[in-house]
Design brief:
- This protein has helices spanning 2-24, 29-202, 224-227, 237-251, 297-314, 339-345, 357-364; strands at 210-214, 217-223, 256-263, 322-328, 347-354.
- With 365 residues, it is α+β, with helices and mostly antiparallel strands.
- Strands 1-2-5-3-4 form a 5-stranded mixed beta sheet.
- Helix 1 (2-24) packs antiparallel against helix 2 (29-202) and helix 2 (29-202) packs across helix 4 (237-251).
- The longest helix is centred in the N-terminal third of the chain and has 174 residues, at 29-202.
- The radius of gyration is 82 Å and the shape is rod-shaped.
Length: 365
């Protein structure tokens, strides 16, 4: 733009100078032509310059527009650059945060991996322990099953045995009931016998005659002074009468047995010596044993018991129901040494008891 203005100024000066020359007629034709040619050339240059100036103007306008557009684009780019920078910084911050989180996650992962490895090792050991314990339990269970099977077999056997025992017990219960019934019947019979014997002896008005019931037996206590004289084993009439009355009751009850027991006191037995003449000056002979061979109280108690037993037999009681025993002085009722005590101890006891052979047979079944 500046070059075009400069050329235009030169062109005006030359035109003015040329006009002055023509007017003053002081310039030659050659110069005129030369100048005219220069003027034409200058005009051409001017026109060219004007064209260029016009083009330059248009181009300047276009460039201004492009410049404005570029400025706008630049502003936009700056704005975009600022936004991109903010976005970059934001993304960078996010990326740094992601890297930081990744690093923390990596550390956590490694820690978890280490813990997992330790936990896996512990779990494997625990599993091995539990597997061994399970195998042990399975072995114990197998042994328990075997024991249970054996116990079941034993139980079955015992159940079978219990069935047989129940049958046997049932049979025994039946026998026991029969035995109890028989014992009750025998007890009742003994009570009745005691009452009958007591009633039979009551009319003799002898307070020394006693009838007792104890230990499942009836004891008829007959004092010796009622039955025998001192030192004798021959029955007196009162003794025979007492035995007869007892025998009547026993004859009516054949299921009863009687044991006759002879008792004495503890005074030494003195047998009577046979009387023999003694020559003058001769020694006195020793006492002889009286007929029957009695040596002491034991012999005397045995003979007295046998005498009573024989009397019972003669009164109709079977000999298989009778037994006789001499007890001597060894079962006293009174241990004192008074005459009353000795009188009580000298006695015959008839022990009446049920015949237990049926019960023994029932027990042996």
């Amino acid at each position: 733009m500046k070059n075009s203005s400069f050329h235009m100024s030169i062109l005006f000066c030359l035109l003015n100078a040329s006009a002055g020359l023509v007017l003053s007629s002081c310039v030659s034709q050659m110069k005129y032509n030369r100048l005219n040619t220069e003027v034409s050339s200058l005009r051409n240059d001017r026109d060219e310059a004007l064209k260029k100036a016009e083009f330059t103007k248009v181009e300047s306008t276009r460039l201004e527009k492009e410049n404005k557009a570029l400025q706008e684009e630049n502003a936009k780019l700056k704005l975009d650059s600022a936004q991109s920078g903010a976005m970059y910084r934001k993304n960078r911050a996010l990326l740094n945060d992601v890297f930081d989180k990744y690093e923390r996650l990596d550390k956590s992962y490694n820690a978890l991996l280490s813990n997992s490895s330790n936990e896996r090792s512990y779990t494997e050991k625990e599993n091995q322990r539990k597997e061994a314990e399970l195998q042990k339990k399975e072995k114990e269970l197998t042994e328990l099953k075997a024991q249970l099977a054996k116990q079941q077999a034993d139980l079955d056997q015992k159940t079978e045995e219990a069935g047989r025992l129940n049958q046997a017990v049932g049979s025994k219960d039946s026998r026991i009931k029969d035995m109890e019934a028989k014992l009750q019947a025998q007890e009742k019979m003994l009570t009745d016998i005691k009452a009958k014997i007591t009633a039979a002896l009551l009319s003799m008005n002898n307070s020394n005659l006693q009838v007792q019931e104890r230990d499942g037996r009836v004891y008829v206590v007959l004092p010796n002074q009622t039955l025998f004289a001192a030192g004798s084993y021959t029955l007196q009439p009162t003794g025979k009468e007492a035995i007869r009355r007892v025998a009547q009751v026993l004859v009516q009850n054949p299921d009863l047995d009687v044991s006759v027991e002879g008792h004495t006191d503890n005074s030494p037995f003195k047998p009577k010596a046979a009387a023999k003449p003694v020559k003058k000056g001769a020694k006195k002979p020793a006492a002889e044993i009286m007929p029957g061979g009695l040596k002491d109280n034991w012999d005397l108690s045995s003979l007295r018991a046998s005498t009573v037993a024989r009397e019972l037999y003669l009164r109709g009681i079977s000999g298989s129901r009778i037994s006789a025993t001499g007890k001597g002085e060894f079962y006293p009722l009174d241990n004192s040494q008074s005459e009353e005590a000795k009188m009580r101890n000298r006695r015959i006891e008839m022990v009446i008891s049920p015949n237990l052979s049926d019960l023994y047979q029932m027990i042996r079944k």
